[in-house]
Predict the 3D structure of the following.
Amino acid sequence: MSTVRSAFNKASNNYDDHAFLQKEIASRLDEKLNVITTNSNVILDLGAGTGLLSSNLNKRFPNAKTIALDFAQNSLKNNQSANKICANANHLPLADNSVDIVISSLMMQWCPDLKQLFSEIHRVLKNDGLILFSTFGPDTLKELKKSWSAVDNETHVNTFADMHDIGDQLLGAGFQSPVMEMETLTLTYQTVTDLLRDLKAIGAQTVSTRSKSLMGKDKFQLMIKMYESYRQDGKLPATYEVIYGHAWKKISNIGKIDIDNN
C-alpha cells in the first residue's frame, strides 16, 4: 500500500493532465445522482485525489458538508475542497452513523480487502445512507495483459475484481439491494510506450512500467510486438471495463419494541 501511495504522491502535480478517462468516469458517476434521491447533509468523497469528483459534488450539493478523503497527501493539496482528510479508506477517522452519502470514483481497485472497506463504509453511513462508486473490472487493459502473457508468466498488470464478487461483498457487509452496472470504454494510442507513460503519469505503478533494462530488452520488445496485433485504423486500443455500483444501508426496526409509559 505504501508503494501505491508513493506513486500517487509523485504523480499528483501532473495527474489531471493525463487523467482524461478518470475525469469522464467521475462525471458519469456524478450524473447517476440525478436519479437517486437521498439525504445529502454530509458527503464523503472517498479516494478524492486531486478533486475530479469533489468539484462536481461541491456544485451539486452547495449546502452540504463534502469531505475529501485520500491517503496521498500530495494529491489532496491540489484538491480545492474545504474539508480534507488524509487517511486510509480501511480505517476511516469518522464517527459511526455520521455520513449520508459515500461516493468513490476509481479508488476501490487499490483496496485489496473489499470486506474491510465495505465494513468501514457501512459503519460511518447513517441509516438509509447511500454508497455509490465506480471501479475497474477484469477486462481492463486486456490487450496489455494478453501481450505480456505471451512473454512470461509474471503478473505485469493489476487484477481487478468481478462485478458479481463486488455485489456479494456489499451484501456481506450488510448493504441492501446492490445495483451493479458495467460499460466498456476504449482509449487509443499511437504506441505502447505512450500507454505506459500515461499509466505512470496517473500513478498506476502496480502496472509494470519498468524500464527495458530491468526486465530485459527482448521481453519488452516482444510484448510490444504482440500488442501491435491489436492495432486498428492506425491506433492501438486500451480497453477499460468500468463498473458502477450503488447500495443502501438499511437497518430494520423489526424486533424493536417501543414502550409507552403513559
Observations:
- The domain at 2-249 is CATH 3.40.50.150 (Rossmann fold).
- The chain has eleven helices and seven strands.
